[in-house]
Specification:
By secondary structure, this protein is α/β, with parallel strands linked by helices. The protein has helices at about 10-20, 75-85, 120-125, 140-155, 180-185, 210-225, 240-250, 260-265, 295-300, 305-320, 330-340; strands at about 1-5, 25-30, 45, 65, 90-95, 160-165, 170, 195-200, 205, 210, 230, 235-240, 255-260.
Length: about 350
């Protein structure tokens, strides 16, 4: 098949390109040229900005389009107008953030999803040109706007549209650093930094998925003609088990110190950003990391063992320790939490 991967030089986009190439598909990448990647001589690079001039896509017939970086319905509409109506499958990378609230364990695709508001569209319109391609720039409007993207794809393509509501992506090359922070921190836990605070209890569930497993399922959506909405993430796993596995694989001497949730809140240390993998301790996010994937599992979603994600991530991060991480606790924040646990 003739495939177009929008954002194919990014973290997930690159994994999708690799999966398509390995499957023998013909692949073109649409990229602004801000990031670089090497996928071999058989991959075509098309330079264009989806928010500007898309004439390079005109008269280019594609069978499958994989869109990893759509954040507004207008950007979906412009892309689909440019590639034309003949595509057989459009796979939009959406997000579990579209749900907005997580009040039900194992939340399924049938859950009610809030629509974007005028304020969400105004927030997107105010973004500077250089920020429009950054998921982080959309803030609280990110989830509602992803839902608006899903609706636009459905409106234009009907059952040829696929929306993958992806959970936390992890793996070597991850720019969010949410799993990477724990991997690096435990790998470096020695001497006076041997004790590492973590959010109690150790049974709290975390949920993530290797970027390569999402890419394989995206490919399956093309080969098996899977339309509609799909939750795509891994199985919930106790945080204690995740940290123990990281320590084992990195041969770390770390001593995990479990800190009560109330003490974390009292110290004004933010879940998710300061403490990666910890969901905000509010009712709306109670099951944020327990989203249901029964539908996708039945259709062929498979997730590799966590150790097969951690090992390459560890090797990758050991080769770039000079790069500061984008999230995680400072040494001062860690010290405050360790003091509360005395």
């Amino acid at each position: 098949m003739r495939c177009l991967v929008v954002g194919g030089t990014g973290f997930l986009g690159g994994a999708i390109v690799d999966a398509l190439v390995d499957a023998g598909q013909s692949v073109s990448i649409l990229s602004r040229g801000v990031t670089s990647a090497s996928h071999g001589a058989g991959v075509e690079m098309i330079r264009a900005d989806r928010y500007e001039d898309l004439t390079p896509l005109e008269n280019r017939p594609f069978d499958w389009v994989f869109d990893t970086c759509a954040y507004t319905p207008a950007s979906v509409e412009r892309l689909l107008d440019a590639v034309g109506p003949s595509i057989a499958r459009y796979v939009l990378i959406s997000s579990v953030s579209a749900y907005g609230t997580f009040l039900e364990d194992g939340q399924a695709e049938t859950a009610i999803v809030p629509d974007a508001t005028p304020a969400d569209f105004e927030a997107a319109a105010r973004l500077a040109r250089e920020d429009r391609a950054s998921a982080f720039a959309y803030g609280a409007s990110y989830g509602p706007l992803k839902r608006a993207c899903e609706r636009k794809a459905d409106e234009m393509l009907g059952d040829r549209a696929t929306s993958l509501r992806v959970g936390l992506l992890v793996g070597a090359g991850d720019y969010s650093d949410r799993l990477t922070w724990w991997v690096r921190r435990l790998d470096q836990a020695r001497d006076d930094r041997k004790r590492v605070p973590a959010p109690a209890p150790d049974t709290r569930l975390v949920q993530m998925i290797d970027v390569r497993d999402v890419a394989r399922f995206a490919l399956r959506c093309g080969t098996d003609d899977l339309g509609g909405i799909w939750n795509v993430t891994g199985a919930p796993t106790p945080m204690g088990a995740v940290l123990s596995l990281i320590a084992e694989l990195s041969q770390s001497d770390a001593e995990i110190v479990w800190v009560k949730e109330d003490d974390i809140v009292a110290e004004d240390i933010a879940p998710w950003s300061d403490i990666p993998l910890m969901a905000p301790p509010i009712p709306e996010f109670r099951y944020f990391l327990s989203v249901g994937t029964e539908k996708a599992n039945a259709a062929g979603l498979t997730c590799r063992p966590l150790r097969d994600t951690i090992l390459p991530l560890l090797a990758w991060d050991r080769g770039r320790r000079e790069v500061p991480l984008t999230c995680g606790m400072t040494a001062e924040q860690e010290a405050r939490l360790l003091d509360t646990a005395q």
